Amino acid sequence: MKQNFYEKVYEIVSKIPKGRVTTYGAIAEFAGSRGSARMVGWALNKSKSRPINLPAHRVVNRNGLLTGKHHFGGEFIMSELLANEGVEINGNKVMNFADYFWMPSDTIY
After folding, report:
1. Mean predicted confidence (pLDDT) in 40-61
2. Which residues pair with 22 in a beta bridge?
């Protein structure tokens, strides 16, 4: 059975290691749909209805900004979740972004 785009996104997001972040664009590209970063965001927003929680807090924009923070039920929940995993956050942005960035193609085959 062919996997739809949302299911590909969920599979990739489920593999983001604790203490790391990736971007909507990196996920879209690895899912075979380069340029579909917004669709990744839509998929993650829809993931709330799924029985398995995804670590969607580990997905940020290409500059390390916590652009999805308003979907977590509170202004600081996303940053708190990341900080609890050891990711340095300041002003709704991942500090030293390159140090925390996870590229799906580096570990998923």
Report:
1. 87
2. 59
User: At 40, phi and psi to the nearest 5?
Assistant: -65, -45
Q: Which two tokens stand for residue 37?
A: 């970063």
Given CATH 3.40.50.1370, say whether it is the number of domain 5-103: no
Residue 82 is predicted with a pLDDT of 96
Instruction: Decide if 17 contacts 104 (C-beta within 8 A).
Output: no
What pTM did the predictor assign?
A: 0.90
**Structural domain boundaries of the chain?**
5-103
Contacts of 108 (CB under 8 A, 6+ apart): 12, 15, 30
pLDDT of residue 55 exceeding 50, the answer is yes
For residues 94-104, average pLDDT: 96
Count CA atoms closer than 13 A to 7's CA, side-chain side: 4
